[in-house]
Structure formats: structure tokens, C-alpha cells
Specification:
Blueprint lengths: L6 H11 L1 H8 L12 E4 L2 H8 L8 E6 L8 E8 L7 H14 L5 E7 L9 E5 L4 E6 L1 E4 L14 H5 L11 H15 L3 H15 L3 H10 L1 H51 L4 H9 L2 H10 L6 H4 L4
Parallel strand pairs: 3-4, 4-7
Antiparallel strand pairs: 1-2, 2-3, 5-6
Length: about 300
């Protein structure tokens, strides 16, 4: 059974791992002068949740962009991924941006919505007013991946763009070549092997190659396929090693627990005689901390009741 895909979480991870590339790709109109000297800081999710309460949406990604030389005031980018355009609420987004602006005492907020799919009914502007006056006008940067021609980014040096090639507009005949371009981008633009492994999964999820298509890819792009196979094997090896390590740690902990419990049973029987059923049950259900406390107390306790007394 296939595991459910959390698109919100996938894109949150992508933006947090590559904030500079994400802004350059999804918010190009505002990110033109965000160079290497600019600092980009994700706002702490816990702090926002405490301050904004239930209005806070954990899977939005607020990024604070600051220019150390002071040539521009700080900008707050609010990025949101929307898988189903029909569920998008411009009122909710406006409300959230106003809350953040008030909380951080700024009017420099750039809302960005990443639409995985396209829909003709997506609201693009919210205007509150009457026939006489406009009292509030709100809009946002919208990036519709499914309406973005993949050909524009086949050789892009922006890793976020390359990873999202499978989400862009393409013909069925382009699917394998686009997958290959995404893999090539990952292998050439991301030197960290842990992130290569992480985002290989991202590309696979959004491409969805069939067995036949994967065989065609392997025959058409043998070099990339070999590199990808190496990543998969490393992923499997590391997962097995991690599982074995956890198992060993759990086994060692369990062995220590059983050893302490057995020693304590012998001490109790030597001092107080056979264990009554209630005491036996207490020992079986005891935590490591309780066993350690009873081992220390057995020397001074003058009865079983005193030994097992709480506190």
C-alpha cells in the first residue's frame, strides 16, 4: 500500500532547505536583488503558533529577508503551497498576512502561493469596499507549476526549478527526458549526498514513472541511472544500519533492565522471603528509573511496603 504524500510538507522542506533558490524561482518579481550578502531567516514556527494561536497555519513558510547594508528594508515572504486550488481561500491568506504584519510590526509583506495544479476559478485579488470607496485591496504572487512550461528550466542552475520539472507543463513524450533533467540537476547542483538521497524521493514522487518508463530511462540515461542506483543502495544500507543500531540499543537497554530486575528479585527474596503476587507485578511493570530507586532503597527498607512506597 502506497504511503500518503504530504505535498505541504514536501514543499515546506524544499523551501526551508533552499530558501534563496525558492524565492528566486517562486517570487522572481520581488527577489531580483536578493544576492549572497542578504540573510534569509525562517521564522520560528513555535513562536508564531504561540502568538497567533489557531490562526497560525503550520505548513506556511514565513521567510524574513534582510539586507545588512541597509539598502532595502527587510521583507517578509509568506510562502504557501496549495495542492487543490478549490480549497484556496484568499480571505484566509489575507487574514494571516495581516496577523503576521501586526505581530512583526511591518508592512513589507510579500504573499506567495505555489499552486501544484491549475484552475480557472482561482481568486487573484480581494477588494473590500463599496461603490464609493475601496477600503482594502489585497493580492499575491501566484506561481502555478502546472502552467509553467518545463522546457524553460531543463538547463536551469536553480535547484528548486530543476526539482520541480516533473510538476511543470509537459507532454507525455517528454516525461522521461524531464525526469532525467531533474536527476541531473540534483546530482550536479546539490553536493550533499544526504540531500541528494532526500530529494531523489521528491523527484520520484512527482514524476511517477511506471516500470516500463523506468526501463526506458535506464537505457536512455545509463550514467544518471547508475548514479541514482548508487544513491538508492546507500539509502537502503543506511536505513538497515540505522535499524540495526536502534535494535542493538534497544536490546542493550532491555538487557540492562532485565539484569537489574533479576538482581533486585534475588535481594528481595533474601531479605523478605518469597515475593507476593502484587510485588511481582510491580517489578514486571517497573521502569528503569523505578528499578534503580528500589535497588538503592533495598538496603534500608524494613518491609516490602516501605521498599515500594511512592516518593
Amino acid at each position: 500500500m502506497a504511503r500518503p504524500v504530504s505535498h505541504d510538507q514536501n514543499f515546506k522542506n524544499l523551501i526551508l532547505d533552499y530558501p534563496r533558490e525558492a524565492l528566486a524561482f517562486f517570487a522572481a518579481d520581488e527577489a531580483g536583488d536578493i544576492d549572497a550578502s542578504v540573510s534569509i531567516t525562517p521564522l520560528r514556527q513555535e513562536q508564531l503558533k504561540v502568538r497567533l494561536g489557531e490562526r497560525f497555519r503550520e505548513l506556511d513558510v514565513p521567510l524574513l529577508v534582510e539586507w545588512p547594508d541597509g539598502r532595502r528594508e527587510a521583507l517578509l515572504f509568506v510562502l504557501e503551497e496549495e495542492t487543490n486550488p478549490q480549497r484556496f481561500s484568499i480571505h484566509r491568506l489575507a487574514h494571516y498576512c495581516l496577523d503576521l504584519a501586526e505581530l512583526l510590526a511591518t508592512e513589507r509583506v510579500v504573499p506567495v502561493v505555489i499552486f501544484l495544479h491549475q484552475s480557472p476559478g482561482i481568486p487573484r485579488q480581494l477588494v473590500l469596499g463599496s461603490e464609493r470607496h475601496r477600503y482594502l485591496a489585497f493580492d499575491y504572487l501566484a506561481y502555478v507549476l502546472a502552467a509553467t512550461p518545463a522546457e524553460r528550466y531543463l538547463d536551469s542552475d536553480n535547484l528548486v526549478a530543476r526539482l520541480n520539472l516533473p510538476n511543470m507543463q509537459r507532454t507525455p513524450a517528454q516525461k522521461i527526458d524531464i525526469y532525467a533533467s531533474a536527476i541531473q540537476g540534483l546530482l550536479t547542483l546539490e553536493p550533499n549526498i544526504e540531500k541528494q538521497i532526500k530529494y531523489l524521493d521528491f523527484i520520484d514522487i512527482y514524476t511517477g514513472l511506471s516500470d516500463t518508463e523506468r526501463q526506458l530511462y535506464e537505457s536512455r540515461y545509463p550514467q544518471e541511472s547508475t548514479a541514482m542506483t548508487g544513491l538508492v543502495e546507500r539509502m537502503r544500507t543506511e536505513s538497515m544500519q540505522e535499524g540495526m543500531q536502534k535494535g542493538m540499543q534497544q536490546g542493550m537497554q532491555q538487557g540492562r533492565h532485565e539484569g537489574v530486575e533479576g538482581t533486585l528479585r534475588k535481594q528481595i527474596e533474601l531479605k523478605f522471603g518469597d515475593l507476593p503476587a502484587w510485588a511481582d507485578e510491580r517489578l514486571k511493570q517497573a521502569s528503569d528509573e523505578q528499578l534503580d530507586a528500589w535497588v538503592a532503597r533495598i538496603l534500608t527498607a524494613d518491609s516490602l511496603d516501605a521498599l515500594f512506597a511512592e516518593g
